[in-house]
Amino acid sequence: MNLINLFQKAIVDIGMKTVEASVFYEAPIGIRFEIGGEEDVYIKKGISRKLYPNPDYVNKAVERASKIFNVLPKKDWILRIDLYDYQEIKKILKALKLAAPHEKVLKEYEQNDENITHYELYWSLNDIKWSAETIIREIILADIGGLNCLASAVYLLHPNESMLYHLYDDRGLDVVAKDKRMLYPLYETFNDWILD
Predict the structure, then answer these.
(1) Which residues 6+ apart lie within 8 Å of 115 measured at CB?
(2) Which stretch of DSSP H or E encloses residue 58?
(3) Coil, strand, or helix at residue 66?
(4) If residue 89 lies in a helix (H) or strand (E), which one and from where to where?
(5) What is the separation of C-alpha 130 from the centre of its chain, rounded to a whole number of angstroms?
(6) How far apart are CA 140 and CA 153, in angstroms?
(7) What is the pLDDT, as a whole number, of residue 133?
(8) Taking residues 173-193, what's their average pLDDT?
(9) CB–CB of 118/82 below 8 Å?
(10) Sign of torsion over alpha carbons 101, 106, 107, 111
(11) pLDDT reading at 107 higher than 70
């Protein structure tokens, strides 16, 4: 089975029709974690007092999101990234240090009298060199000074466990699954980070 079909089958198994940015609200079973900490998001630097992402805030957010991902299964992940501009593909490959996608889908549709082009890029992470921390860091930076196209656009799916890890930006992370027993260890271990 190709990655696209494997991904879609697992999404249906989880209980969703499609993958959208509001994963937590679309899935019957899930946990939403707060990733951003108490630190200020930005710090001022230089003579002009320009705002930059606060390294303490970013590092603590990366640490939280990484700790959650690191207790999940180690192999067999599929990465999907959704983009709306072909020019962004080269940028994300460089930023995330990824090889070219194994599969991609181009969808074109009309919305509010505007033609929309949507790219879905897929990787089997067993087959390439990749870094979870690099991906997590770039997603966290997306809305606060990084590649904005990565905000709410990156999905890590474990098809064998029917589990989806969706770090949508520096503020939050959704983990949804077909079986709540898969999420119970996360609930117990990271309970303080769960959003009300």
Answers:
(1) 108, 109
(2) helix 55-70
(3) helix
(4) helix 87-96
(5) 14
(6) 12
(7) 96
(8) 95
(9) yes
(10) positive
(11) yes
Handedness of CA 175, 63, 143, 37 (dihedral sign): positive
The confidence score (pLDDT) of residue 111 equals 82
* Residue in the structure block whose two tokens are 């969703």: 16
Q: Detail the DSSP E strand segments found in the chain.
A: 30-34, 42-45, 50-53, 78-83, 103-111, 114-124, 154-158, 163-167, 172-177
CA pair distance 163, 88, nearest whole angstrom: 27
The pLDDT tens digits of the residues spanning 140-158 come to: 999 999 999 999 999 999 9
List phi, psi (to 5°) of 39. -65, 160
Coil vs helix vs strand at 98: coil
pLDDT for residue 170: 94
Inter-residue contact 172 to 33 (CB < 8 Å): yes
